[in-house]
Amino acid sequence: MKKLKFTKMHGLGNNYIYVNMFEETIAEADLADLAVAVSNPYTGIGSDGMILICPSEKAPVKMRIFNNDGSEAKNCGNGLRCVAKYAYENGIVEEEEFQIETLGGLVTAKVSLNDQNNVSLVTVNMGNPILQPEQIPVKGFSGKDHVINERVTFSDHTMYMTAVSMGNPHAIFFVDNINEAPLHSLGPVIEKDAMFPDWVNAEFVESISENEMHFRVWERGSGITQACGTGACAAAVAAILNGKSEKNTDITVHLAGGDLIINWQNDGDVLMTGPAEVICTGEYLLK
Ligand SMILES: N[C@@H](CCC[C@H](N)C(=O)O)C(=O)O
After folding, report:
1. What is the Cα–Cα distance from 188 to 202, expressed in whole angstroms?
2. Chain-wide mean pLDDT for the chain?
3. Confidence of residue 287 (pLDDT cuts 50, 70, 90)
4. Same domain as 243, residue 119
5. In this predicted complex, what is the ipTM?
6. Which residues are annotated as a binding site for substrate?
7. C-beta 230 within 6 A of ligand 1
């Protein structure tokens, strides 16, 4: 039986099965089904999805991310930090600062090392957020150049939405109390609403101060997860667009799995800093 070597890693509990495509081969036609199979907690390994660490012609390494329903996304913040850790610790790169190709473009990662020379924290320059409705994409706002605090209704619930793409689409809703956010009831409804032609990641955010917020996510293609790096970036951008936070300032985002530091710089780039951890390595028996 053919075996696939894997590493299970997480960023603040957002966990994926990582496959080193410098060494492994998987047919393109099998990728979506494999992501579903390995992610299954009962019959697979159990994860939020699968991430491929691939050779690239544009950078030392390329990331491809599949959600646990088999859909492929263009970006994944927690995945990028884990790919950076894997690439550095496994000798794919030797420099502490290097580029990673994603389907959404090139990003730059910088690793911080601990006393054992292992990667403890990673800062990723996630680039500029995309705010134009057609590019996010979100329908119903033609003629507008952004979607900030717009009144919308899902399942008879009226809410105020700010939409941001970090290479993947996010709908952000500010709430008074994060513990009462309708994550389970409205998350799946918002995700697949006709307003979002590519579906959307739905995020509820309680702003605590200019520098701090609580955050919960219903991820497109994966459901509730412990953390979403691109979502945390989008939430910080949304807080600034809504006058709750400021640019060029570190914002601590408290996710279910821990904290990320996000900074939307004056030059337009969004920096994300947080941990990346290896859980285990193993071999998956291919059916
Ligand atoms: N967990 C990720 C985002 C993964 C992709 C997302 N579900 C999508 O389909 O856009 C992150 O940390 O950013």
Report:
1. 8
2. 98
3. confident
4. no
5. 0.99
6. 14, 67, 77-78, 168, 201, 219-220, 229-230
7. yes
